Amino acid sequence: MRILALDTSVAACSACLWEDGRVLAGDSMPMMHGHAEALVPLLARLRDEVGLDWDSLDRIGVTVGPGSFTGLRVGLATARALRLATGVPVAGVTATRAWAASLPDAVRATAGSILVAIDTRRGDMYAELFRASDLVSLAGPEVVAASDLGVFMQRAGVASVPLVCGDASGLVDPLVQAGTLLAGPDIPWPDPAVVAALAAGAVLQDGDDVPSALYVRPPDAAIPANGGQLRPGAPAP
């Protein structure tokens, strides 16, 4: 199976062309902003490097979140455009599962559970707990403050000390130092080859739909109490 994998969920623009477990071409470019300008040229470069047409793909894999609101929209919009142009189906992969699966097997074997903590850039994190042996989700993803991680793990019934990965080191380091969490290797973003492998095993949605974004946090914008009317008595837009 030949797959194009995209990840723009966090502080990198990543993609790879993957075929039956082998990376044909790939790259990850660190960036906090600018995914929209960087992704399409990156894909064109990888395509030219391998020398293939997009319609020769069997599947497109894309991270759906949680992560950066803008970054997720860029990745999903690009996947949707390729889907419309080629008819190639799109499989969604959560960024948390891709990050957990990016840990080497030997590292995962040392822990009973894995906590993926993604910095929301708002003083808290997107957190999801997985069973290390098979990456079954135990809790989350949800927005969790560092001070509430203990309750989050207790609710999931985690007895052992979880291995932590993700980009929220500034929030979880005190818990690592206290022995509440076990520090994992430094993996700054999900491996796009892992996104491809997970997409290969994903069950596709029926029809032509591209997976929806998993934002987790509700949008900042809210409908006012008057229903969005410009003035009392005015018809709602």
Automatic annotation (TrEMBL):
What name goes with this protein? Gcp-like domain-containing protein
Q: Name one GO biological process term.
A: tRNA threonylcarbamoyladenosine modification
Q: Which residues form the Gcp-like domain?
A: 34-128
Q: Note the coiled coil stretches, chain numbering.
A: none
The cellular component terms of Gene Ontology attached to this UniProt record, alphabetical and capped at eight, are: cytosol
The superkingdom listed in its UniProt entry is Bacteria
> PANTHER family annotated for this entry?
TRNA N6-ADENOSINE THREONYLCARBAMOYLTRANSFERASE (PTHR11735), TRNA THREONYLCARBAMOYLADENOSINE BIOSYNTHESIS PROTEIN TSAB (PTHR11735:SF11)
